[in-house]
Design a protein that fits this description.
This protein is of the alpha/beta class and 147 residues long. 37% of the residues lie in helices and 21% in strands. It starts with 12 loop residues before the first helix and ends with a strand.
Length: 147
């Protein structure tokens, strides 16, 4: 939630600080990390992630929307961010590669020296009134879960 034109993130400053610390840890350790942001729809999850991405200095930001569960594409959001990622990921998608080949190319791309913040956002559904988002940071090795 935001407070009008002041741009203050209400009751989410602690969460924002946690995400910033996680990114700093990832950048220092050259090791991947994962943060899960979950909550009821409308409580400011997306705004929290937008603010975090705006303030993620020195990090590449990739943002994708997940498909509805009624008709998901395998690794759909990864195909959507291929243009922003470029390189082998874009080549694999353009060639109609299998999802595992795209995921492998993305893993290789995330080995880059600068951290990457990748947000995979779900939308709340009719039967599930919850919105879940993930911010994943840099995969210098295998990601380690962070909450």
């Amino acid at each position: 939630m935001t407070a009008g034109d002041r741009g203050v993130l209400l009751e989410r400053e602690e969460h924002l600080a946690t995400l910033k610390r996680a990114l700093a840890t990832v950048a220092r350790a050259s090791r991947g990390g994962l943060a899960l942001v979950a909550g009821e729809a409308g409580v400011g999850n997306t705004e929290l992630l937008r603010r975090f991405c705006e303030q993620a200095r020195g990090a590449r930001v990739l943002w994708a929307e997940c498909d509805p569960l009624s008709a998901p594409r395998p690794l759909g959001p990864l195909f959507d961010i291929a243009g922003a990622v470029g390189g082998e990921v874009r080549t694999q998608v353009a060639a109609g590669a299998q999802p595992h080949e795209v995921a492998s190319a993305l893993r290789d791309e995330l080995q880059a020296p600068a951290p990457t913040v990748m947000v995979l956002r779900t939308r709340s559904g009719r039967t599930r009134r919850r919105s879940t988002s993930c911010a994943s940071s840099r995969a210098g090795s295998r990601p380690s879960p962070r909450c």
